[in-house]
Design a protein that fits this description.
Blueprint (H helix, E strand, L loop, with lengths): L8 H22 L7 H8 L3 H7 L3 H24 L5 H14 L3 H4 L5 H4 L2 H27 L8 H13 L7 H18 L3 H5 L1
Pfam families: TetR_N
Keywords: DNA-binding, Transcription, Transcription regulation
InterPro entries: DNA-bd_HTH_TetR-type_CS, Homeodomain-like_sf, HTH-type_TetR-like_transc_reg, HTH_TetR, Tet_transcr_reg_TetR-rel_C_sf
Length: about 200
């Protein structure tokens, strides 16, 4: 019987999943998802390969579990950051800053684009997770249009373009350079959505 991590079987399962997620995340910083095996993930997590199958039947299921977890964590952080921020322009600035905090594992991972190595079903489920974050941006832009801060526009296109800009952005590690990069990104996105304060200025 494998040694139980934590005080209960539930804690053990949760901690094992966390170790698997951390292992996958770290491995994807060095190589593409297609070049990582379940054996690699088990080894990096310090668990037996059978333990992986106790949680996930295959590599794509593990990736989906990881992204579900990361999305839930991120959306929770994003919503907390937006609490008490009423002005749509400031909400958009907050959204941009939160996006800049994200580790860009999936955008920067070496190897083929994830969309080219995953099954159609997994691609669809990944898209569903992206929509959860997009809904927050859509809500901010809608509020801005309704109060006259942003002009009328095709929200579907704007949401896609803003997120494409943010997801492809490399933010420097140096604090001063990082702040300049984020400020430049804020100004670019605000201009792109037609923020009235910039148009007036």
């Amino acid at each position: 019987m494998p040694k139980i991590i934590g005080g209960s079987l539930h804690e053990h399962r949760a901690q094992t999943r966390q170790k698997l997620f951390a292992a996958l995340s770290n491995l994807m910083m060095d190589r593409g998802f297609d070049a990582i095996s379940l054996a690699d993930i088990a080894s990096a997590a310090g668990v037996g390969r059978t333990a992986v199958y106790n949680h996930f039947p295959d590599k794509e299921s593990l990736l989906l579990g990881f992204i579900t977890h990361e999305t839930e964590q991120y959306v929770g952080t994003l919503e907390r950051a937006l609490e008490g921020v009423d002005d749509p322009v400031e909400q958009l600035r907050t959204y941009i800053r939160q996006q800049a905090q994200l580790k860009r594992v999936f955008h920067l991972a070496p190897g083929p684009d994830l969309r080219t190595v995953l099954s159609r079903g997994t691609q669809q489920r990944l898209r569903e997770h992206a929509v959860i974050v997009e809904d927050t941006l859509r809500r901010i832009l809608t509020a801005g249009i309704e109060c006259g801060e942003f002009p009328e526009q095709d929200l579907g296109t704007t949401v896609q373009l803003v997120n494409a800009c943010l997801s492809g952005r490399l933010i420097p590690e140096d604090p001063a350079q990082r702040e300049r990069a984020i400020e430049a990104t804020e100004a670019f996105v605000l201009r792109a959505v037609g923020a009235q304060e910039l148009v007036a200025g």
